[in-house]
Amino acid sequence: MQSVDVVVIGAGQAGLSGAYHLRRTGLEPDRDFVVLDHAPRPGGAWQFRWPSLTYGKVHGMHALPGMELTGADDSRPSSKVIGEYFDAYERAFDLRVHRPVEVSAVREGVGGRLRVETSEGTYATRAVISATGTWDRPFWPRYPGQDTFLGRQLHTVNYPGPADFAGQRVVVVGGGASGTQHLMEIAEVAADTFWVTRRPPVFREGPFGADQGRAAVAMVADRVRHGLPPQSVVSVTGLPVTDAVRRARESGVLDRLPMFDRITPAGVAWDDGRVVEADVILWATGFRPAVDHLAPLRLREPGGGIRVEGTQAVRDERVQLVGYGPSASTIGANRAGRAAVRAVGRLLERPEPAAERAASAA
Predict the structure, then answer these.
(1) 207: cis peptide before it, omega within 30°?
(2) For the chain, counts of helices (H) and of strands (E)
(3) How far is residue 33 from each of residues 5, 42, 64, 356, measured CA to CA in Å?
(4) Could you say which of 125, 157, 195, 199 has the lowest number of CB atoms within 10 Å?
(5) How far is residue 81's CA from residue 187's CA, in Å, rounded to a whole number?
(6) Among 60-69, 72-81, 118-127, 194-203, which range has the highest average pLDDT?
(7) DSSP per residue over 283-306, as a string?
(8) pLDDT by residue (tens digit) across 145-187?
(9) Which of 114, 105, 20, 36 is nearest to 347 (CA)?
(10) Is residue 225 pLDDT above 90, yes or no?
(11) In sequence order, what DSSP letters do the residues of 190-249 get, joined into one string?
C-alpha cells in the first residue's frame, strides 16, 4: 500500500491539466501525487484516432496549460501530432506518468482515505482526480437481428480509415461529427453509402461564438447537476457547415435515412418495407463516460449519472471528475483540471488526524 495525497487517473488533456496544476501548487510527483494511465504511450485517446484524421481536420484542439502546440503540420495524423505534443509536455513538466497501469476500482479505504486498486499495486489517497474520458466505453446500440448480419460491424473506436471500405456498401449509423466525417471520406471509395440517424441532424451555419459556447456548456452542466448522464457538448451545438459538408450535401452523400427497425443477414430493413443491402455497418454512435472504476463508491444518482458541482462529485468530496460532462472538450478539460486542483487543495488544507494518517500508512 503506497500512500499519496492525490491520485490522478488518466493522462489525456484533463488528467495532464490536473497534474500540471498540482505541480504548480508545490506537490511533487511520486511523492505527493501520482498520475496513472492505462494507455501504452502519451497522447490520451488521440493516439487511437484513425490515420485519415489529420491535424488540419481537428476542430478546436486547445493547448495544454503552460505550453503551446506550435508548428504542427496540418497534413500529419492527429494521433502523431498530439501524441508527440503530450509526450513533450509530460517531460517538460516532469509529470512522471505511470503507464500502462489499469485502475480496477476506487473504494472506501481506512482512516477516511480512498483505496485505489491498480495493476501496479494499491494506493491510499486523500483525493482522486478521475480523468478517464469516454474512449474506453464505445456505445453499441442493439437492434433485432444484429447477430445475424453476415457482413462486418465496427465502431468509431476501431475505425481504420476509408481505404478498408473500397468497393463496399456501407451503412453509417450516427448523426454526430464522427459519423459525418466517416461518411464523407468513405463515400469517395465505397460502392455505395447510406447514412442513418435516430433524429434529423442539425446543421449549424455561421460563426459559433463565446455566447453560443457558454450556452451549450450550460445545457450539459445542468444535466450533470441533476445527476443525469451527460451529453457531449457537440451534441447540443449542431454540426458546423464546412465547405466539405456543403459539397457532401449537394452531392447527396449527406441525405439522411431514418433509423432502421431491424438488421437482416444481408443488411438493414424498415417496417415500411424499405431494405438496404450492405457489406458493413459502421456504428458512429458515440461513447459513454468511463467511470466504472468508481462504482464501489456508489456515486450514481437514480437518473443514471454522477451528480457533479463544478468538478466535485456531490456524493463524495474526495472525488473530482474532469473531462466529464461540460468539461469534455479540450478547453473545458483545461479549466476543469485547474478547478479540480483548487477543490483538492481546500481538502488537503484540513489537517488529517494522526490516527487516520497511521491507518492509511499501515
Answers:
(1) no
(2) 7, 18
(3) 6, 18, 19, 18
(4) 199
(5) 26
(6) 118-127
(7) E---B----GGGGGG--B-TTSSB
(8) 999 999 999 999 999 999 999 999 999 999 888 899 999 999 9
(9) 114
(10) no
(11) SSEEEEEESS---EE-S---HHHHHHHHHHHHHHHHTTPPPPPTGGGT-EE--HHHHHHH
Side chain identity, residue 230? P
The three three-digit cell numbers of residue 295, written as one number? 462504482
Helix (H) or strand (E) holding 357: helix 354-361
Asked if the model's pLDDT at residue 312 lies above 90, the reply is yes
pTM score, whole prediction: 0.88
pLDDT category, 242, cuts 50, 70, 90?
confident
Give me the mean pLDDT over the 263-278 stretch.
Answer: 98
Grid cell 488521440 is found at: 46
Cell numbers representing residue 199 in the block: 433524429
Contact partners, residue 221, CB within 8 Å, separation at least 6: 325, 326
d(CA 139, CA 288): 6
